[in-house]
Amino acid sequence: MIKQAIDETLSSSLNIIRMNAVNKHIMIVEDEEQTRFTLSIILKKAGYKVTTAADGLTAFTKINNAKNSPAPIDFLLTDIQLPYMTGLELINKLNNANMSLPTLVITGYGDKKIVIELMRTGCREYIDKPFEPDKLLNRVESVFAKIEKTKSEEKKRHELVEKEKIELNRMLQSYKHNFESIREQFTSAVDSYKNLIQIEPNAYKVKSVCRYRHAMELGGDFIDIRNTETGCDILVADVAGHDMGASYHTVMIKAFFDENCRAGNGGEAFFKLLNKQLTENGKNNRMVTANYLSLNLEEMRGELITAAHPSIIIQSAFSCPRALNAAGDVLGIYEDVAFGARSFDIKTGDRLFLYTDGFIDICRLDVSTGKKEKLGIEGALELIKKHSYLPLKDMTQNIWNDALNFCGKKLYDDALILGVEIS
Known about the structure:
The protein has helices at about 1-10, 15-20, 35-45, 55-65, 85-95, 110-120, 135-185, 190-195, 245-265, 265-280, 355-360, 375-385, 390-405; strands at about 25-30, 50-55, 75-80, 105, 125-130, 205-215, 220-225, 230-240, 290-295, 300-305, 310-315, 320-325, 340-345, 350-355, 365, 370-375, 415-420. The chain is α+β, with helices and mostly antiparallel strands.
């Protein structure tokens, strides 16, 4: 009679639930025999495999025994008030034993205190007595659906991460190969460094003038320009140190930059790959700051990607020079990094100045106070404004001369400045 009554109350959606219930095993924990029997019939009718227990202690034992079996328990349907071990105690014991299960708790109607306790255990699924068979089945199916959705989302995230890792490693191998082939071309670290920062006159789609000086024979400042289909990419970088290690890293940066431009990638992709190489190469760990400037001369737009490097300065006709800053993380220290980005309009005649921190850190002794005074960004802006009426070559040379005179031609760090004019 009970089975017949249940059949008559189940909805037409039962066939769908049966399909979703295949191979799913539910533990029913209920001390009232009649209720336990009724729940068992409802769930079996829906296609679930069912195991029952009259108390929490027995339920825990059965769940534990089944965990390594061909049919482990997938879902817990439990009352709260049980002998030997309550439903809440059962949930907590399963959690502590690393056997947590998706759970639907049967509660007395309006029992707010029990709901709060459930929330504390992490269980947010409950159903109040009394309930119809349809309602129970829908709630069980809803919990399973949430589980499947979560698994699907986690799988997609995992697949995406793995895909990104594979692509990043593929690109990294390509960059490494290019790095190795370039490094073999240099037999002397000193000669290599001098060659690395040479800017070829009249070789680019923009006018460019560079001035630099090393604090020691080897340095870590690096600059390069590469023409692109729509304009050019410019990289200014500063490797910490003035030794063979710094020279080694400038070679690597050049190799990566060459490959990045060949592959048509932007500044953010370049920085991510360079940072990956720097952080994985622990024995030669070096801190690097850099600015990657992409100039699109067709759309007359500039994009600056920054890795903790000083601002670039833009000088437009009939206006005061201004600093364009884009904050970002230093390269070579942390695996997870973020880079600053700044887009801006450009026009014919605009001049852009890129430099390393050694240029703005040029300092002199203030005889009146006895303190060191740095050139700084403000000083650089003043020098650019002062000489802005001159052609780019003369302007850059005069800025450089004034900066050296400011510090009495004594440098304690590599210094470099690049002037670029949109023509």
